[in-house]
Amino acid sequence: MFQIIKFSRGIGSFFLLTSFVLLSCGEEQGGKKEIEEDLDRQPNIIFIFADDWGYGDLGVHGSTFCKTPNLDKMAAEGIDFQNFSVLNPVCSPSRVAVMTGQFPARQSVHGHFASVESHIKRNMPDWLDPQAPLLPKMLKEAGYSTAHFGKWHLSNTHVTDAPSPLEYGYDEYGAFNLSNNLHQMQADSTLYKTIDFVKRKKDEPFFINAWIHATHTPHYPKEEYMQQFTHLNEQQQVYAAVVAEYDARIGELFQTLKTLGIDDNTLVIFSSDNGPEITGKNKITEDNSTGPGLGTYYSVGETGELKGRKRSLFAGGVRIPFLVRWPNNAPAGVVDSITALASVDLLPTFLELANTTSLDNYQSDGESIVSAIKGKSFKRDKPIFWDWRFPNDRPHFWPSAGVQEGNWKLLMNEELGREELYDISTDWGEQKDMSAENPEKVKDLMGKFKTFEVSLPIIPSPNCFSKARTLADRK
Known about the structure:
Layout: E1 2-8, E2 13-19, H1 25-40, E3 44-50, H2 69-76, E4 79-81, E5 84-85, H3 91-100, H4 116-121, H5 135-141, E6 145-151, E7 172-176, H6 190-200, E8 206-211, H7 223-226, H8 234-260, E9 266-272, E10 284-285, E11 293-294, H9 315-318, E12 322-325, E13 334-336, E14 341-342, H10 346-353, H11 370-373, E15 384-387, E16 401-405, E17 408-413, E18 418-423, H12 439-454, H13 469-474
Parallel strand pairs: 3-8, 3-9, 4-13, 5-14, 6-7, 6-8
Antiparallel strand pairs: 1-2, 4-12, 9-12, 10-11, 15-16, 16-17, 17-18
């Protein structure tokens, strides 16, 4: 028997042909036993989360100057999901959605973690609550060895008394952008530490959040990669060198998995926390976590012609790469631009793969996408909500809220009295506003966002307040 599954690929389509062999009764029983054993096997999970890496910064996505041979190969050996969204257009809340499986506004995290004074002004906590529902804790309880390597930013170096990552369910960590009472590791060591952990934990199920620095500022291009791009202009040369370095490290990770013989039992996902940074004028910048380096003048990432960038709710700010590779489990060479996925889906997905359940009374805003990862059909039931409280007057940066349900995505700003509606099934790049032709759909989606909005906490939990807050409140 044969089954043909159709996948959209931009303009046109291609087909995946899968075959099913009819077995004799004895063979069928043996096959059933193998399937049952496979279901009981917990896969290793590595989630590589880049920083400010745009949708168009992959060769396979049409980058005009970056070279990503290892990520391109990852896409060829797995699934390139092209309709994946993060739940906020900046770092910290986007990462909170991954950690909790809930919209970040449910934890009162609306923007990036900074100083205590800044958090007070923005009605934010000083760190993500360690008592919140947390993915690493759930996987640890399911028998996984858990590790976090790379960027943290679930607090900030400006906060002196924030919790250690160990309080969030990790067995090990090495990180930067932590509370300044903790050791800040070098930004470029993330994937080296990941590989080392894999080697040490190869005989047991493991989960790793590998949150790489690229392509966030400061940029730290290395000479060997700069030499590969001498044909480019100054800005592109720096950016391409940074991308090339991390692409090479990802290639080393895949080779390690193969050498250790655990490639087939390791799910690897590559994604990014938001779209590319806005290109600025600063050639040099300072960072109190990673040190001085090159600034936003060299932030020339690409969105693949999607509107908006980092800090925008348009696709260029929140639709980012999502590559899935899991040999002999996820089909190879699939491009899926239809299936709507979101970062809140990771927690329920990983729990299903780990053969475990979530905490009592916990409800995720996401849905398990295991079927999509295995190349089967998946239809989203839950809407996707964006709560963004810091819009600006740039052309594609005005939306302060958004909701996506089915094929429709509504962007709005109540203060401006402005809304735009897009049918992303036919207008993937969000170019044509359909609100005038569909007033009832606008009303429906706006009502659903209002219902979501009233469910959010008014103030952050005091469990996440620094001791410095009392002093700051007096200023």
